Amino acid sequence: MKKPVSVFMMDVTDSSRNWKEVSSYLETVEAYIKHWTKGLPNVHIKHRLGDEIVCIFDHYATAYTIAFYINQIWRFSDQPPYFGMSFGNVEEDISDIDIDKWNHPLMKHARLANERIKQSSNRTPIIFFPDSDAMSIPSVEMSNLLLEYQGKLINEQTKLQRLISGLFSVLDEQKMIANLLGKSPSTISSHYKKGNCEIILKTFNTLQRTLNHQEETQSGTYPSNIMNELENTIKNHLKQNLKIITN
Which residues does residue 92 pair with via DSSP β-bridges, in sequence order? Predict the structure, then answer.
């Protein structure tokens, strides 16, 4: 029986500059991912080589959902993470996968996507390189164009706009964010609009729905409720620990 999975390989820009601090922070991020995905039956997470995190998850949209929220809370604004990402179906029992030895094409695709970002001049935060059966080439190209556009908008945000975007992705309440930051609601609204926060969040929702639809089409599974539960877990964790975003 085919099982839908997603994979990402995450690296950090210019991590050699302060590698001890980055490596320590990645251990914290690894713990966040484990907490967020504790409701999924099969999750493999490995922090390795100092600045790399490799993950395998159930379902097509999981890797992208996790990567999006990591980007929203990331501490080092001048050293952003980037994610080579793949998804598709596997025959193996996911619970038995050894992440260090698993040489499935999806792992190779994720690494190739990661290398493509590394060699790019504009450093799009995420690139998809799925299995050819999981998504058609035109759909991959369209999704990667959306990812490039989303990444450009994020990279152009000011520090305050990025903070507001991260808080909106979790709280979605202007007055609460204004009180939290000690600013007026009109100021929050202005930075929300100037930072293109609504478009960034809409793009996230559109890509997540696209991946869910692809999984339904290719695998016959219906992951929408599972993705909603995953997001609720992430949001609840961050609501209870808002310093993760504001520090």
Answer: none
In the sheet that 43-48 helps form, which strands lie side by side, from edge to edge?
Answer: 43-48, 52-58, 3-12, 81-90, 126-128
DSSP 154-207: HHTS-HHHHHHHHHHHHT--HHHHHHHHT--HHHHHHHHHHTTHHHHHHHHHHH
Burial environment of residue 54 by CB neighbours within 10 A (0 to 12, 13 to 18, 19 or more): buried
Distance of CA 202 to the CA centre of its chain: 15
Global pTM exceeds 0.85: yes
Count up the domains in the chain and report the number: 1
CATH code at position 221? 3.30.70.270
**Model confidence pLDDT, tens digit, residues 195-210:** 999 999 999 999 999 9
- Please state the φ and ψ torsions of residue 88, each to the nearest 5 degrees: 165, -160
Range of the domain at 23: 3-156+196-246
Residue 171 lies in a domain: no
